[in-house]
Fold each of these.
Amino acid sequence: MAALVQAAGDNPVGAALTMSVPAEYQDLIEEAGRTCPEVSPNLLAALLTQESGFNPKAQSPVGAQGIAQFMPSTWERHGIDGNGDGKRDVWDPQDAIPSSAKYLCTIAGDVKNVPGNKQHNMLAAYNAGSGAVRKYGGVPPYKETQNYVRAISALADTSGGGKTPSTGQAATVVNAARSRIGTPYSWGGGSASGPTTGICCSPNGKSGTSITGFDCSGLTLYAYAKAGISLPRTAAAQYAVSVPVKAGQVRPGDLVFYGSSAASIHHVGIYVGNGWMIDAPRPGTKVRYSHLTTMSDLYGIARPKSNHSKEI
């Protein structure tokens, strides 16, 4: 990926781009991000980060294509010739980026009468279709779509000037997690203050309502709060406000994420060194040390920005 650059702005979800994006796409995103009032440069950049990581050759297992991950049928209806070269090419970011903004604006119109947060409804429609948003009167009850909306919203709301934790803060995070080893897993449990009773119910039907403890993201939220850093509540949203760490630069305190994509991240732990992490694995277990290979779908390791203070 090309070197990252950053443009300053007054508002992280306002007219100016404050997220870090590859230099060759910055002007495209700045311009396309003003296509309609519901879309901003930051939101468009967050969506492209989520969809492809700015990879113009990305192709998903279900057939989504290019930097904006258009399905062929959607591209056929909504793709535009953004650079005026006479072709509509889903693999060309100069076409795909303005097409993505235009499509967002189109579906914003499709769901404009649906109650709730207009931007969230628009993102949900981009992921699950306008019909699903209208059917459910807002973001539909699909785990993937809900994580998708949370992750993009959190990333778009993050200003570009954030610093990652100091080594001292990272040590505090690890020590806080270690102090909770043996605490029961509770689905939906955990806050910045410590273990709490959870909620009902996990995908396997397990309830945390009678258990005081942590789920995976509740534990990480708690440990980072001890270092003075506020994280969003879900694993996917925590990834969205973090900076990916390259191999060889991982250090204790970094967050370890599992899932098949940024939108489908389902688990997070705290790296402690030598291939191990501390995590709250699943119902019926306790906070413990786990090897990074404990799950087969390791997505990446990332370091939260220390100026993030908005819980979602």
Note: The domain at 167-304 is CATH 3.90.1720.10 (endopeptidase fold (from Nostoc punctiforme)).
Amino acid sequence: MRPFASVRARATLAATAVVALALAAAGVALLLTLRASLVDQADGQAESAARRVAAQLAANVPYGDLDLDEDNPVQVVDDDGRLVAVSDDLERISGTGVDGVRPDRGSGKNDEDNDKNDEDEEGDADSEGLEPGDIDDDVRLSGGSATVDGDTEDYRFARVTVNTEGKGELTVHAGAPLTAEESAVTTALTAMLIGLPLLLAVIAAVTWLVTRRALRPVDAIRAEMAAITASEDLARRVPEPDTRDEIARLARTTNETLAALQASVERQRRFVADASHELRSPIASLRTQLEVGAAHPELLDVPGAVEDTVRLQELAADLLLLARLDAGEKPGRSRVDLAALAQEELSQRPADRIAVTAKLESVEVAGSRGQLARVLGNLVANAQRHARSRVAVTTRRDGAWALLEVADDGDGVPPAERERIFERFVRLDDARSRDEGGAGLGLAIARDVATRHGGTLTVTESPDGGALFTLRLPSDAQAPHRGAGDRATSHNGAAD
């Protein structure tokens, strides 16, 4: 099981870790840049010192009269690799390639001999392409260490070559200390080691406080949701912060979900209450007739009992279909020709009361044949119930849509009631009688089926002044369009 860690703690830890990595990288880069800058500065000082000594040698200053830096190491080496001059107090040196700290007195020449103008030596001096008195522009830099007057330090050494008259080609090694570089780097590193943890602590504290403030609305939403769950009061809503960020959108979405859930629960409660009420009447009537028949067989109303049983069966079937639709049952994907479906459905309706005319254009849709037949049957039954003399059924194509229209010449549906009639168990005032109308589920079932098929069901005014119900469904693009002509038929039908 993973250990619990709050969003605030994770955010603080992540922010601190990211800042720590960034500061560490910046600190390393700063130290490297500082060290490189100071090393370059030491290289410049070493080169300057080496060129000062080389200038004296180019001017034929004797070795003993050379002005050498007493605080920093200086070596002068002749063309044969012999140390001919060295700064005072030099006790040890490394990094120049010459380890000697005292002039080589065994060279067989003293300063005066070296001052002579010897032609052979001049020829050797010209071997490198430098004229007498020239100082090489190239400088070679290296690192090392030296002990001067008992103090051992790291140095940067510059190597410069000079051609002299009488002494030949000489090499000057001069060093500059790295004390300033080491001190600056150490100071910067110490400051970082002390300052970075303090800075990280401040960043962590600020992140913790900012995250706490940012998540405060989330805590309020969570607390309110817990209270709603405990009280089962879906009328309550979570607080919405006065911001336009993700938390505000979360609160609004949560309230929208609660509102939809409340509406669904209330609708379900009304459905159960209305279903119980609708079932109670036929069951009570059937029970009364059976009890009377049991006591007085001659008084048993068999047709009435059968009528109540059929009505109860139809109501149970409607309730079962609504339950399946509410459960999200998806319709089939078989091809259904609306014209053929309408002709078949109308031909099966008993001839009783209201004539039904049909103008049918073949158009196919994808869906459940049984559910679409139920929609057509409910619409025709509703139209026959309210029509004065005739009902018209039409199927046609409208672009990418298939339309099925059922019109009557009755009183129509008032505009204010055109949405309410699709609610469950809703009957308008002139259709309240259970003897004349159903339970108020037919149109609700029809609209639910239309929605499940990706379509719509609306009601407007018909050309005859009655109601015009329009079922609009996506036409099956893969289905062949059979029959360009219209088929007109006439049927007699009775209301359910």
Note: The domain at 332-493 is CATH 3.30.565.10 (Heat Shock Protein 90).
Amino acid sequence: MSWAATGPVGATPVVLLHGWGETHREFSRLLPLLPAGVRAVAPDQRGHGSSDRPQDGYTLQDHAADVVALLDALDLPSAVLLGSSSGGYVAQQVAVDHPERVLGLVLVGSPRSLQGRPPFADAVAELRDPVDPAWVRDLHSWFPTVQPVPGWYVEERVRDGAAIPARVRQRSLEGLGTARPPTDAGTITAPTLVLWGACDGLLPRDHTEALIAAIPGSRLVAYEDTGHLVTWERPERVAADLVMFLDELGR
């Protein structure tokens, strides 16, 4: 697993988990906003970015095990996990399987359940290599943004997305869609902050409220005029809410 890191070793560790079809550069606008007191580690999940691309092993449990292996490699007994979209699903699975490794969760536009087929599943099933950047750009139309997003950042997302092999997209999506929701499998005991875009057409409010209900003591912060891609649209506010959450954990 490859990763990028900012902040000094020994600072509060935060692992940033990107969503399906993304890379660690999803956080390229967020990382520079974090203070020196945060040691942020943003890995490429298996098959994505510069990480290894095995033929198999794309279940939710496989992705969660990779996070634990990353903590081991970095000699981190535990960390705060911030997961964007399906990255938050992975974070929930880690919190259920290995609660002792999770100091807290920040779930950003994250689902309670991904069981079933999303509306773009047929398009993904028909995908072949090499992946056309135009296909990635068209896929992004399923996740419309409300706040303005810099053009360079969108182009970076398209380039990174086109470099992910078709089979990785297909098997990762299948692994997410067939997994038992983590909060059905166990109870999350880690302090949890849920950040949700109020204009999220993929995860409506009732879905997000179900996630809150499934995690005892969790807290919801709704971002008005924000869609599903919260880290794309509101990196400054995500950074501020993360720092506040870390301060609360410290107290």
Note: The chain has one domain: 3-250.
Amino acid sequence: MHTPSNLQAVQQRTPRLRTKRQRGFTLIELLIAITLMAVLAGLSWRGLDSIMRSRNITQAQVDKTAVLQTVLAQWQADLNALQPVTSNNTNMAVNGVQWDGRTLRLVRRATAWRADGADAGLWVVAWTLRDKQWLRWQSAPVQTRAALLQALANAERWGQNPSADDAALETPLIPLDAWQLSYFRSNAWTNPLSSSGSTDTATGNQGALPDAIRLQIELPASTGVLGRITLDWVRPNFSNTKT
């Protein structure tokens, strides 16, 4: 039991205890806490910024690689659809692959169909390198020999000195430093401009295709893949009988 004097002493101590329990942070403590949080936030932001930049670089690299793969897939598709125009008169045969050292012209089957469902005929496709840019040109579908010869002439003109109409049919592909072609004929890789093997000796057909075509391209760093790529295409019905 508290006496009056003891009760007074307890009452005098109570506010002090209550004041001590309600005491908050000092200004120095708050400043230290804010400073630490600012430092942590800055470090976190720098980490997130580095992650975002790495992700953007990786995505750009993936996009460039995807473009390169698409272009090479188109190259393979054009070759797989090659269609030499043969004739009983060898002077009237049209070679499905024509290379002049600068432009490659191909005669291939058209994959689009006419509105009435009929076969669209043939396309003349050309590939060339101009101003360090790989380009592809494609004619409208042709169904007559005269239209085919005209399309081949237009493709040749496009490769040398394109008109505005010719340029409207071209598609810029990828930057390229250089490209080179080789033909596999008579069981050996040869210069495409060489006359050796340009004629099918069994039939005398001037429109005969090479047994295989080797493409070598030199890529700049801007394509995402620096260096040389070699891609071989083999004629589907080719059979090497060399022993």
Note: The first helix runs from residue 4 to 21.
